[in-house]
């Protein structure tokens, strides 16, 4: 017979008048290869239909199931209960707006940050629908695809000390997205123009460089390299400005 797992789950419905944030305890028998996705669905089906949490793909692709698992942000569908102690504590991701229990709204946050970082190709070229697809060097295309693997789960932002302190901080995910456009030869922005977007404490200079973001990223994105790359690039741009003014 498998373990009996104790779950302690954050409960709060901000839409329900008078509801009070609290932790609720459940117990479940562990089955082979049980993930938190399976466990939470069983808890909802068998014990408490009011439990709120998000899932979509069950395969580590949509990013919807991110939550704080025993103190660490991670994907519930990719977390096996056998790798956790017999007492599992679940909280919703901090930083994002709480919808209810373990469900948060990451979409509004990502949209706001992508607008703020102008996450689209900036070019003066006029779009020609009849033109052939532009060729790109294979190595550059691979670099871009590597950074595009972000599933917008929000784990990196939830683990980030700066994002917890200030809600205008762009966070590793949005800065990683800026790096994706910096390496893209189709984007014609200059370093000075990127500086206008991320050269502040809301952007790259707010990053304390302790790299909790990379530690928790479920897709293993090279956030450390990208943050270092942007910090160097924006630092050099600032120095050039200072010397120009002298
Ligand atoms: S390295 Fe920067 S972005 Fe990453 S967690 Fe630390 S402060 Fe946040
Ligand atoms: S960078 Fe990683 S942790 Fe952050 S949102 Fe993207 S996939 Fe999630
Ligand atoms: S349900 Fe899609 S990443 Fe977990």
UniProtKB/TrEMBL annotation:
<keyword id="KW-0560">Oxidoreductase</keyword>
<dbReference type="Pfam" id="PF13085">
    <property type="entry name" value="Fer2_3"/>
</dbReference>
<dbReference type="InterPro" id="IPR036010">
    <property type="entry name" value="2Fe-2S_ferredoxin-like_sf"/>
</dbReference>
<dbReference type="InterPro" id="IPR004489">
    <property type="entry name" value="Succ_DH/fum_Rdtase_Fe-S"/>
</dbReference>
<dbReference type="InterPro" id="IPR017900">
    <property type="entry name" value="4Fe4S_Fe_S_CS"/>
</dbReference>
<dbReference type="GO" id="GO:0006099">
    <property type="term" value="P:tricarboxylic acid cycle"/>
</dbReference>
<dbReference type="Pfam" id="PF13183">
    <property type="entry name" value="Fer4_8"/>
</dbReference>
<dbReference type="InterPro" id="IPR050573">
    <property type="entry name" value="SDH/FRD_Iron-Sulfur"/>
</dbReference>
<dbReference type="GO" id="GO:0051539">
    <property type="term" value="F:4 iron, 4 sulfur cluster binding"/>
</dbReference>
<comment type="similarity">
    <text>Belongs to the succinate dehydrogenase/fumarate reductase iron-sulfur protein family.</text>
</comment>
<dbReference type="GO" id="GO:0008177">
    <property type="term" value="F:succinate dehydrogenase (quinone) activity"/>
</dbReference>
<dbReference type="InterPro" id="IPR025192">
    <property type="entry name" value="Succ_DH/fum_Rdtase_N"/>
</dbReference>
<keyword id="KW-0816">Tricarboxylic acid cycle</keyword>
<dbReference type="GO" id="GO:0051537">
    <property type="term" value="F:2 iron, 2 sulfur cluster binding"/>
</dbReference>
<dbReference type="InterPro" id="IPR009051">
    <property type="entry name" value="Helical_ferredxn"/>
</dbReference>
<dbReference type="InterPro" id="IPR006058">
    <property type="entry name" value="2Fe2S_fd_BS"/>
</dbReference>
<dbReference type="GO" id="GO:0009055">
    <property type="term" value="F:electron transfer activity"/>
</dbReference>
<keyword id="KW-0001">2Fe-2S</keyword>
<dbReference type="InterPro" id="IPR017896">
    <property type="entry name" value="4Fe4S_Fe-S-bd"/>
</dbReference>
<keyword id="KW-0411">Iron-sulfur</keyword>
<dbReference type="GO" id="GO:0022904">
    <property type="term" value="P:respiratory electron transport chain"/>
</dbReference>
<dbReference type="GO" id="GO:0046872">
    <property type="term" value="F:metal ion binding"/>
</dbReference>
<keyword id="KW-0004">4Fe-4S</keyword>
<keyword id="KW-0408">Iron</keyword>
<dbReference type="InterPro" id="IPR012675">
    <property type="entry name" value="Beta-grasp_dom_sf"/>
</dbReference>
<dbReference type="GO" id="GO:0051538">
    <property type="term" value="F:3 iron, 4 sulfur cluster binding"/>
</dbReference>
<keyword id="KW-0479">Metal-binding</keyword>
<keyword id="KW-0003">3Fe-4S</keyword>
<protein>
    <recommendedName>
        <fullName>succinate dehydrogenase</fullName>
        <ecNumber>1.3.5.1</ecNumber>
    </recommendedName>
</protein>
<feature type="domain" description="4Fe-4S ferredoxin-type">
    <location>
        <begin position="141"/>
        <end position="170"/>
    </location>
</feature>
<comment type="subunit">
    <text>Part of an enzyme complex containing three subunits: a flavoprotein (frdA), an iron-sulfur protein (frdB), and diheme cytochrome b (frdC).</text>
</comment>
């Amino acid at each position: 017979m498998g373990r009996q797992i104790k779950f302690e789950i954050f409960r709060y419905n901000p839409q329900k008048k008078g509801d009070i944030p609290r932790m609720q305890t459940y117990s479940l028998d562990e089955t082979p290869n049980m993930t938190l996705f399976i466990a939470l669905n069983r808890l909802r089906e068998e014990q408490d239909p009011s439990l709120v949490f998000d899932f979509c793909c069950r395969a580590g692709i949509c990013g919807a199931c991110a939550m704080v698992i025993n103190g660490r942000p991670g994907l519930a569908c990719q977390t096996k209960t056998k790798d956790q102690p017999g007492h599992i504590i679940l909280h919703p991701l901090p930083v994002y707006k709480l919808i209810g229990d373990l469900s948060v709204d990451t979409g509004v946050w990502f949209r706001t940050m992508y607008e703020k970082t102008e996450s689209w190709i900036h070019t003066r070229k006029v779009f020609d629908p009849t033109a052939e697809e532009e060729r790109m060097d294979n190595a550059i295309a691979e670099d871009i695809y590597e950074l595009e693997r972000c599933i917008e789960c929000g784990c990196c932002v939830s683990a980030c000390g700066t994002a917890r302190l200030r809600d205008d901080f762009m966070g590793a995910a949005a800065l990683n997205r800026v790096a994706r456009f910096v390496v893209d030869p189709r984007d014609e922005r200059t370093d000075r123009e990127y500086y206008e977007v991320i050269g502040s404490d809301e952007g790259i200079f707010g990053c304390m460089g302790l790299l909790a973001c990379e530690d928790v990223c479920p897709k293993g994105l090279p956030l450390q390299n990208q943050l270092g790359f942007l910090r160097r690039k924006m630092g050099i741009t600032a120095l050039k400005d200072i010397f120009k003014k002298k």
